[in-house]
Design goal:
Layout lengths: L8 H9 L4 H4 L3 H6 L4 H15 L11 H23 L2 H10 L10 H4 L3 H30 L3 H24 L3 H15 L14 H45 L2
Helix pairs in contact: 1-11, 4-9, 5-8, 5-11, 8-9, 8-10, 8-11, 9-11, 10-11
Length: 252
Amino acid sequence: MRRNFNSSKLVRLLGDASAVDADTSRQDIAERLSAWVGVFDSVTLHAAHQSIRAVVSADRAEPPSARALALQEQVHRVRSVLEKAITTNEVEAGGDRRSRHAAGPVEPTPEEQADFAPQRQRYLDQQRNMDLMIGPLRANLREALAAASPRLRQLAALDAVWEQMLEPHERRLLPTMPGFLERRFQQLRNDHAQDDPAAWRRPGGWLDVFDRTLQEVLLAELDARLQPVMGLMEAWNSGASRHSNKEVEKHP
């Protein structure tokens, strides 16, 4: 397990955009997590551990490789769809849609381009896409693990408890992300107030720089949100690998 939150790309990007308490950022991950898990959460977690120990181990089924491949494809598909949505140049796409109308494309005014509100909505839309796709994907993986073997069933149950415990904190913190970007947006806008508005979105223009920053932060958030999914997938692959090795030993 990584020892500190600085190893997260998302945290590093946010740290570059704002002042971060160095002493706090160097805290061990267990210390930071303990601040999130209260007394009632500890009771819930203890009960979950007790319940997991009681899982009947008579069922020795192991994950078949075909199912593992299907799950990998599902994870890859979700990641690809979300990455494409994040990296699509919405300005060009919007221009293509407008060009189909008789009036032709409408160039945003400098005032409209210098308004952060559309950028905030863009970020919130992508967060909503992540919620809609990653949540069901994670639940589907847990369901598959629970049906695979007693060991993986225990992991699925523990992951469900952790998700329930940490979700309120995520719901509180993730909506604050656009605020970090708004400060960066305003800084760039102020630094380039005298630039020609026609050059703002050209390569190297301040809006072009901001677009790349926004995409980078969104991709980092996507990676952070997918970490539990990738952990479950790694556990599944590990179980499938052990099953394959046992079959080889039985039938050399």
